[in-house]
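Tokens for chain A. Residues wanted.
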């Protein structure tokens, strides 16, 4: 059993992605970003998840450039994800992706995702949404061919969005990042990803913190002498699903990395999965055509 949060999964284009990364949503203050990245690198994290929406790409890039030498690492030792937000879908996608590259200033982005299937400002029923998605994907494919984006993928896509993309893409998405936790097990969507050879990656693994006080989760955590967060993250990675827990607290960042020195029994895995109610804590992408 691996002891490192940097343990990789192999994407469909041959790129290795660590199975645990640090989520950076809501981390904006440069000092806060620096502390979080320092703690993460010290704890063995080698993946960092950002997005244009988070408004912290520049802060993350600067922190990594300062901290990698301190930890005896180089750019090639870390895996950086960023995302195209819905306000730049379509004809603005190329410019927006290049802006993310410039903000991070790390030479290339390891994984770049379309953050959301819709276009900001357009009604759900607007027939321009599919065309904008296709145009965005074509821009990502071009930057991928240039080596500026090592892998490309999508986030918050439904089964229908995935099938639409697979019918038109020249480069298969490497990753689908979606909400995933015991209350939202995503069986159908994960099956589609398996069908197409797409890595399914979890976001919101703790259901925005609400699951850490769930009685079943707490009971399982007590049994293993672990935190509820560790149990929830272990539940995901034990199914081969990469996770990106977010925290600005150095102690929690280190705690969240310690999920490789224990395993949940099959019965406890099933018990947690039985909590599935299809309950989202984030946007519902099924409302987008």
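Reply:
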């Amino acid at each position: 059993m691996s002891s490192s949060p940097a343990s990789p999964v192999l994407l469909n284009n041959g790129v290795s992605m660590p199975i645990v990364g640090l989520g950076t949503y809501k981390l904006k203050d440069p000092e806060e970003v620096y502390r979080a990245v320092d703690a993460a690198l010290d704890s063995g994290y080698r993946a960092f998840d950002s997005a244009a929406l988070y408004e912290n790409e520049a802060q993350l890039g600067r922190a990594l450039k300062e901290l990698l030498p301190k930890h005896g690492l180089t750019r090639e030792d870390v895996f950086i994800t960023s995302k195209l937000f819905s306000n730049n879908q379509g004809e603005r996608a190329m410019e927006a992706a290049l802006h993310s590259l410039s903000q991070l200033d790390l030479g290339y982005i390891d994984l770049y995702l379309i953050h959301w299937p819709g276009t900001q400002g357009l009604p759900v029923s607007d027939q321009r949404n599919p065309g904008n998605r296709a145009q965005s994907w074509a821009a990502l494919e071009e930057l991928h061919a240039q080596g500026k984006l090592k892998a490309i993928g999508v986030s918050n896509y439904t089964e229908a969005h995935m099938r639409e993309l697979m019918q038109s893409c020249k480069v298969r998405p490497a990753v689908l990042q979606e909400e995933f936790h015991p209350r939202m097990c995503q069986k159908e969507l994960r099956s589609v990803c398996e069908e197409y050879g797409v890595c399914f990656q979890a976001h919101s693994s703790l259901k925005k913190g609400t699951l850490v006080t769930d009685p079943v989760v707490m009971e399982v955590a007590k049994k293993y002498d672990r935190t509820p967060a560790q149990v929830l993250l272990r539940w995901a990675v034990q199914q081969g699903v990469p996770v990106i827990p977010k925290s600005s607290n150095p102690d929690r960042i280190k705690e969240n990395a310690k999920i490789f020195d224990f395993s949940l029994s099959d019965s406890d895995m099933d018990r947690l999965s039985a909590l599935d109610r299809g309950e989202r804590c984030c946007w519902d992408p099924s409302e987008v055509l």
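The chain has a mean pLDDT of 95. The chain has ten helices and nine strands.
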